[in-house]
Amino acid sequence: MTATAPPLLELDALRKEFGGRPGSVAVDDVSLTVHEGETLALVGESGCGKTTLTRLLLRLLEPTSGTVRFDGTDLFALDAAALRGVRREMQVVLQDPYSSMNPRLRIVDIVAEPLVTHDPRARGRRGRAWTRQRVGELLEAVGLDGTILDRYPHEFSGGQRQRISIARAIGLEPRLVVLDEPTSALDVSVQARVLDLLAELQQRLGLTYVFVSHNLAVVRQVADRVAVMRRGALVEVGTAHQVFTAPAHPYTRQLLDAVPIPDPVKARRTRRAALAGDEETAQAGDGKTGDGKPGDGGTAPRPAHDGAR
Amino acid sequence: MTSTTAASPVLEIHDLRVDFRLAATTVHAVRGVSFSVAPGETLAVVGESGSGKSATALSALRLNPEPPCVYAGGHILLDGKDLLTRGERELGRIRGADLSMIFQDPMTSLDPLQRIGSQVAEVLRHHGGHSRAEARAAALSALDEVGIPDPERRYRQYPHELSGGLRQRVMIAAALVARPRVLIADEPTTALDVTVQRQILDLLVQLQQRHGMAVVLITHDLGVVAETADRVVVMHRGEAVETGDVHDVFARPEDPYTRRLLDATPRLETAG
């Protein structure tokens, strides 16, 4: 991830209008680069255009104008055969592990789908045996038992299904994985483990992630850089550290302020300060709490401990 | 959100046991849960999916479908009277008047074919004692109180014409128009964007303070708990594994599951 390396993904003045009349601009002149090996988080509320943007960068949608370059190649200039070649290097994991799998297919066929499409070894007389072997390895790589090949999606929990989706996404050893709200449908303890898995796979396989999320606390944990989107446009792009500690755009600050703080002492102090319209108190209060670990509340007696307000 | 004083509880749940008797098996969804909530107090029931938190919440209004649901034991006391022994007619008088509920998804809880104003007014009409005009006036002021701009115009609109946040405000108006003493809020902000969630949480706190309601907040989000609750019940596999003051539970969790839940919760202020 050196600064001089050319970006893996480069969006230039990308624009998408729907319906052909003004007022329906889903993506509004977005320019953005993503470097090899990094996690770029795309953050925004519902309707901001983040999903449309990911569909454009995978060329699942044609833009109104602008370009997407993947490893220097203009995606929208490619013919179908050339696009297929590039596509095997870009994979996607979707939010809902329940609707992103055909319930009538066995796990082996779900995970093998991209292999069968793109890898000649998965076809022919020996293809079936090779595929089963490869899918078993992939399932083990995502922390599942390699012997579940012949079972069906309904036999698995949400977290297990999301692992199956991830196995499917890494089967072709892609360079870029688009993760569209990959943990939004999961319980927090399951979410934590899936995030750990994604981090481990990224290191091991040198993956580049575009991580789409509305959950700023999750983004804080995974992102190297953050792009904040609102009404189709990027309002702020920066390192995670910059965006979270010194947000430049008022909308970013509004988003950060709205996130509930899982610490009753801090949450109440911040909220009181906000109600009093006294922003400085809130910020100073946050700064003073040091590392802010939840379990150590006992070491820092707070006057407002009775929770009265 | 007043501090927990010695006010006597309005809703008490004692050793509640809820089973779902299905064809092949019986699921013990709630296995002996007890808690109480006093006027002006917010009690959060926290847990992950399948923990039994929603089954517990729905039990308080006897809204679990019976069958397959069977109340296998315990008591649900509203002002000391057990709801589990009441008939459907009496429950119909209590729901919406003494005990009210709001749900996660306002789109599925509101009738798509009815104007929102009459859905709010209907609550009062159902409970009697209000003329059409009185119910309409009360519904208008309820819409106004929950922060719906231009209530006269909105009164005549249908749910699909409103944003998610406004729909949730309509649900709150309908839940509160008859001035219940207990509000049960089941994941009230889970389907909302974070900035809208903030507004709805602020609104709930404000309304609670104004009317002195007891609030039972069902949620999976420890951030929401930390912001709003006075006391917390942590549920896991149908049991209440920990109950306590919100500050104690967050600062010194006693149960290993509570600790795991707190550790798994992502935070904005992690060193990164």
UniProtKB/TrEMBL annotation, chain B:
<dbReference type="InterPro" id="IPR003593">
    <property type="entry name" value="AAA+_ATPase"/>
</dbReference>
<feature type="domain" description="ABC transporter">
    <location>
        <begin position="11"/>
        <end position="262"/>
    </location>
</feature>
<dbReference type="GO" id="GO:0005886">
    <property type="term" value="C:plasma membrane"/>
</dbReference>
<dbReference type="Pfam" id="PF00005">
    <property type="entry name" value="ABC_tran"/>
</dbReference>
<dbReference type="InterPro" id="IPR027417">
    <property type="entry name" value="P-loop_NTPase"/>
</dbReference>
<dbReference type="InterPro" id="IPR050388">
    <property type="entry name" value="ABC_Ni/Peptide_Import"/>
</dbReference>
<dbReference type="InterPro" id="IPR003439">
    <property type="entry name" value="ABC_transporter-like_ATP-bd"/>
</dbReference>
<comment type="similarity">
    <text>Belongs to the ABC transporter superfamily.</text>
</comment>
<keyword id="KW-0472">Membrane</keyword>
<dbReference type="GO" id="GO:0016887">
    <property type="term" value="F:ATP hydrolysis activity"/>
</dbReference>
<dbReference type="GO" id="GO:0005524">
    <property type="term" value="F:ATP binding"/>
</dbReference>
<keyword id="KW-1003">Cell membrane</keyword>
<keyword id="KW-0547">Nucleotide-binding</keyword>
<protein>
    <submittedName>
        <fullName>ABC transporter ATP-binding protein</fullName>
    </submittedName>
</protein>
<keyword id="KW-0813">Transport</keyword>
<keyword id="KW-0067">ATP-binding</keyword>
